[in-house]
Write a structure and sequence with these properties.
The complex is a heterodimer of chains A (187) and B (487). With 187 residues, chain A is mostly helical. Helix content of chain A is 78%, strand content 0%. Chain A is flat. Chain B has one domain (1-487): Nonribosomal peptide synthetase, condensation domain (Chloramphenicol Acetyltransferase), CATH 3.30.559.
Chain lengths: 187, 487
């Protein structure tokens, strides 16, 4: 015999499918209960938003080859969407755009700045994610320009930190950033 | 100094593999060496690491780009473990230290599963052979201390030989006919059957000489014959019976359905090593393919007309014994005539399609797709969706693939430690069976990897060779068990 008798058929996929089915079932039950009991308070939608957020995070955590900068980028996007969704469901007071997203961007830029300074030798690995976070950081400026944000203090701080991040990155790793762009955008 | 890991673009063939690959379409092939001694896993691990120092083109991981994937140097060590899964399964880089190949072992067998994005069968053999040589040198330092291989210079590169050799203005020949898809139920989800038919090479060669055919041509003909007898004809007969019994079917409808069934040819895809046609030292993919299109209606009609003239030469029976013997002769005559017609077709089709001009045409058509500016400019995620959708259609143009990588040459005393080599390629939901072959010393291993819950094609193939006086030994992974007990 040149093959093992017992084969470990991978059941990881089945477990994921079961978990997905349970999540969908929970979401449907919550929505029904919400509609039947307190239809004026959209708490089921908030819970379901949370479920989707957890799935996005779990899916990316399973991908072990996504590096730390990749996780920062995914978290930035996922949490931003979640906060806007919660704000929208609670009557859209605008706190997600004027407060939550700028804070998220400050945290993300600070994290990337620390990563750049601490491990600039490995910067090439993080460069493309940092570039996307920097692009994403333009969002508060657009929102101020469009007068969507009425209290721009946090947004201005976030933009300031993004610019600082960009300047330090260029000073430390401009060559690597160019190399990363060459790799990621080759045709 | 920043950590500047080396990177390279994917070659023209490799570009397509990660776009279409997944759990159902792994695009993985396996090479195995059955050694004469039990495998020492620690030594094997050392051998793999040492080999990676020489062949750094394998020490890579795949990365996302905005338009294409690319390969980047992998700083981690490869995982070497005991075989515990079906062969040619999808290699999940995140569970394999990002590597695109996987070395496993079981008892006396060493396997390497390679994701096609890295290389093709020919260069895969070069890498695997180096692992085996290094393993034996580490395991038996006293035997191999003279080390005759040290003088041999490793000379390779990772260039995209497609781009270097294709011709911009050539148009490819593509057949518009969809292929006959093998019928039958699939085996349980995720399982892959591997059946190796280890054939005595000198006996096989003598039989090939009888027909003036090469080994690949002969085995392709046997394969078409086996598919016809064990799958195509069976379902054609079933269809005829269903049509006869069905209340709604008129005779005309039954004939129409039979005609429609017969219209789909058995198409065999034969990969071709382009290094035989163009000077190249690349370790990346450099292969193309030809597709034989066996129109069974045409071949069966031809065989029947030839039979009629031969039948008359068989004497009329006088008693019952003679009658029975005559029936057997008639059956053998029919089989032989059909096979002769098939092998004549295969030889002729090979002659027409295996020319440099035809091969350049096919290769150039494929390269042009990869170099098309419009295609290049499509973002990767969208490319994935488009390729997967178009592959749903493209896959309908092949019944089966038969890849024969030929002789695996092993030098000097190293041969004494190896029993046989095997090659396997991953079957797919449409191409439910794939075949592969390789030769070591006087053993040609012909392998069926299958997700079809029926081994009648494998059995027909086996009995065909046995009836021709060729010794065949069966080895299998036991998924479709009964054929392995025949030996």
């Amino acid at each position: 015999m040149i093959y093992p008798k017992k084969i470990n058929a991978s059941n990881g996929e089945i477990i994921t499918q079961i978990m997905l089915a349970i999540s969908i079932a929970v979401a449907i039950i919550l929505t029904i209960i919400n509609k039947l009991t307190t239809p004026n308070v959209p708490w089921a939608a908030l819970a379901n938003g949370g479920i989707i957020y957890v799935w996005v995070i779990v899916k990316y955590s399973i991908h072990r080859n996504v590096n730390i900068a990749g996780h920062v980028l995914i978290q930035t996007i996922a949490v931003s969407i979640l906060t806007v969704f919660i704000d929208y469901k609670l009557g859209f007071k605008g706190w997600s755009l004027s407060l939550a997203i700028p804070i998220i961007l400050i945290v993300a830029n600070t994290a990337m700045l620390i990563l750049t300074i601490v491990s600039y030798k490995k910067y090439l690995r993080y460069a493309i994610y940092q570039l996307f976070i920097l692009i994403f950081s333009v969002l508060p400026a657009i929102l101020i320009g469009e007068r969507v944000v009425t209290k721009p203090i946090m947004s201005i701080i976030a933009i300031g930190i993004s610019i600082l991040n960009l300047v330090i990155t260029i000073i430390l790793s401009a060559k690597d950033l160019g190399e990363a762009i060459k790799r990621k955008f080759h045709m | 100094m920043s950590e500047n890991l080396k990177w390279r673009k994917l070659d023209n063939s490799a570009k397509i593999f990660p776009l279409s690959a997944g759990r159902k379409y792994s695009t993985v092939f396996r090479l195995s060496a059955v050694m004469k001694e039990k495998v020492n896993s620690k030594i094997l691990e050392k051998a793999v690491n040492k080999t990676l120092e020489k062949y750094s083109s394998f020490k890579v991981k795949m990365k996302y780009g905005f338009f294409w994937y690319y390969l980047e140097e992998n700083t981690k060590s490869p995982i070497i473990e005991e075989e515990k899964d079906y062969p040619c399964k999808y290699i999940d880089p995140s569970k394999n230290n990002d590597y695109l190949f996987k070395v496993t072992y079981f008892d006396t067998k060493i396997n390497i599963d390679i994701f096609h994005v890295l290389t093709d069968g020919g260069s895969g053999v070069v890498f695997f052979r180096e692992i085996i040589y290094t393993y034996l040198e580490l395991l038996h330092p006293t035997v191999f201390n003279s080390n005759e291989r040290l003088a041999r210079k490793i000379d390779y590169n990772t260039e995209d030989s497609y781009l270097k050799n294709y011709e911009k203005n050539l148009k490819g020949n593509s057949s518009s006919k969809k292929a006959y898809a093998l019928k039958g139920k699939k085996i349980k989800l995720g399982a892959i059957s591997a059946i190796h038919e280890i054939i005595n090479m000198s006996e096989l060669k003598a039989e090939c000489d009888r027909y003036g055919a090469t080994v690949t041509q002969y085995l392709t003909a046997v394969l078409i014959y086996s598919i016809y007898e064990a799958n195509y004809k069976k379902y054609l007969e079933k269809k005829k019976v269903n049509n006869k019994n069905g209340e709604r079917n008129t005779n005309n409808l039954a004939i129409d359905k039979k005609e429609k069934f017969f219209k789909k040819p058995i198409k065999v895809c034969i990969p071709v090593n382009l290094k035989k046609y163009f000077p190249s030292k690349t370790m990346s993919n450099f292969f193309s393919y030809i597709t034989l299109e066996a129109d069974m209606k045409d071949l069966v009609t031809k065989a029947k007309s030839n039979q009629e003239s031969l039948k008359q030469e068989i004497a009329k029976p006088k008693d019952s014994n003679e009658e029975q013997e005559n029936d057997i002769n008639q059956k053998m005559l029919v089989d032989e005539q059909l096979f002769t017609t098939i092998i004549d077709f295969v030889k002729n089709d090979f002659k027409q399609k295996l020319t440099e001009e035809e091969i350049i045409k096919t290769m150039s058509a494929n390269v042009k797709l990869g170099t098309n500016l419009f295609i290049k400019a499509i973002p990767l995620e969208l490319k994935k969706v488009l390729v997967r959708l178009s592959y749903l259609e493209i896959r309908k143009y092949t019944t089966i693939t038969f890849s024969n990588i030929g002789r695996i040459g092993i030098i000097g005393k190293y041969k004494d430690y190896i029993d046989e080599f095997l090659m396997l390629i991953a079957p797919e939901p449409v191409e439910k069976i794939k075949c592969s072959g390789c030769t070591f010393e006087n053993k040609m291993s012909f392998t069926f990897t299958s997700i079809l819950n029926d081994n009648s094609i494998e059995k027909t193939f086996y009995h065909f060779l046995l009836n021709r006086g060729i010794s065949v030994k069966i080895e299998s992974n036991g998924v479709l068990d009964d054929i392995s007990k025949k030996d």
